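Figure S4 source data
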Amino acid sequence: MTAPTTDRFAAPRPMPKPGILDIAAYVGGKSKIEGVAHPVKLSSNENILGSSDKAKAAYRDAVDRMHIYPDGKGSALRAAIAAHYRLEVERITLGDGSDEIFALLNQVYLEPGDNIVQGEHGFAAYAIGARACQGEVRFAKEPGQRVAVDEIVKCVDERTRLVFIANPANPTGTWLTGEEIRALHAALPPSVVLVLDGAYAEFCTDPRFEDGLDLARTAENVIVTHTFSKLHGLAALRVGWAYGPAGIIEPLERIRPPFNTSIPAQDAAIAALADTEFQQRSVALVEQWRPWLTQQIGGLGLEVTPSAANFVLINFPATPGKTALEAEAFLASKGYLVRAVGNYGLPNAIRITVGLEKHNRTVVELLREFLAR
């Protein structure tokens, strides 16, 4: 339903601008099962280990400052990020999660009729932000559920303003090498911003992987985003950040809400960043159980997309009784929440977060039971 372009001011009620009512609202992973008090939630790629104890303590210590505004620039947190990643602090901006930074980028660069390019299975937030700015969204084909440089480049034209690449990708878990990212950047016009979403970057330990920060250090049209939601387990606090050239960061700062990250969130993020032991345990858990899940589920006759994130994508046949939606429902009936990803153009797949040992073993046995019904 698109609001009419004429007579909006004569309408009997306020009407949104054209295109807004055509946007499909974001739908997150399920968090409840009727009749189950405490389901095992493996639907949202959260850190199954929870949060750093140091981050929790910092959050609690912030309670006496709830009556004051936070530092609008997040100076202490930006300094901590700069020190941790060896970046220039003035080239860092903070967001209410990475999602807000994506929205701000769309606001800064898109006019009606401009377009963004993303993979056909790319994260929904990119497209939502573009359409809210009356921009066009172009979906590049992903052969083998993997972003392909040549397919991205095919979609770029004189009205392209932004290219969004999640690396590793969500919901597939596939990734591009540093060489491929540099090739993509070289193929883009200098007026196009390459946005590298590193929400899951810490979970990819292949030596060929690069998170893009070095490229953003020297290129005028590259920005890299990160989040504290995944590795650090601070999803509820909504803290994201981005690093890029001054020419991109400065306009973002002009429209960024001044208090978009709270005092407890900033303090917890600083503490989480310093807790390298928790980060190492989180990565080690994924590195141990992600290949195990891939091998075990593959042994059941299901195709598992090679993943470098903290989840696996399982592809199901379209055979009645064996479909992805039926598998999702079956697992929910046993108290396990996973994510069907038909809204990402993958109607025959479900995504499962890597859990603790007991969760991973149970998921495999439940899938075995489902397939044997």
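Figure S5 source data
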Amino acid sequence: MGFNIAIDGPAGAGKSTIARKIAAELSFIYVDTGAMYRAIAYGLIQQGIGAEEQEKIAAACESIDVKIAYQDGGQIVLLNGENVNPFIRTEEVSRMTSSISVYPVVRAKLLELQRTLVAENDVLMDGRDIGTCILPNAELKVYLTASSKVRAKRRYLEYVEKGQAANLEEIEQDIIERDYRDMHREVAPLKQAEDAVVVDSSDMTIEEVVACVVALTKERMGVSEA
């Protein structure tokens, strides 16, 4: 039985970046649930299927295969055998992901794989319902958050660094709207698990957040600091 870490939080809180660093430092397997959902969303977009076309989405899910693999020391997400890492971080895919993630058929597609991984390995998973639904018995649960302004600025800078056009106010509004959708959806809404440790990264560096969660993990595992 592995040691499981569940990191939940709203969009733009830095979950994926921080989770990867924590997993690398602890030698845990990192399962990017958000990337897996994004891969499905990207696949649906490629097939021309809209977010409201639930019957088509259900049918498409039968032939969609999503796996996590490691290549040159880095994690990649495979959609039907194709590395889709370069294509799943756009705003279009983000909106599609938020919309389809409420559908039980989409969630069921990934649940079995996720639970098999965590049963056999030391695993870190991040998302919006990991501590409440996917890993309710995780040894450590963290709710990572930050203000909407801070999250919007981080996303804005990411686009600027990539040379993409972006509007800070529009990004923040999109984040606020996404928070509302994620928190009020009927299936597995975003919420803080009762036994989660809250980490607000608004005034913290990535390194400070990583150090905080690593320390919490070692404490729970009974590992003394050198």
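The mean pLDDT is 90. DSSP finds nine helices and eight strands in the chain.
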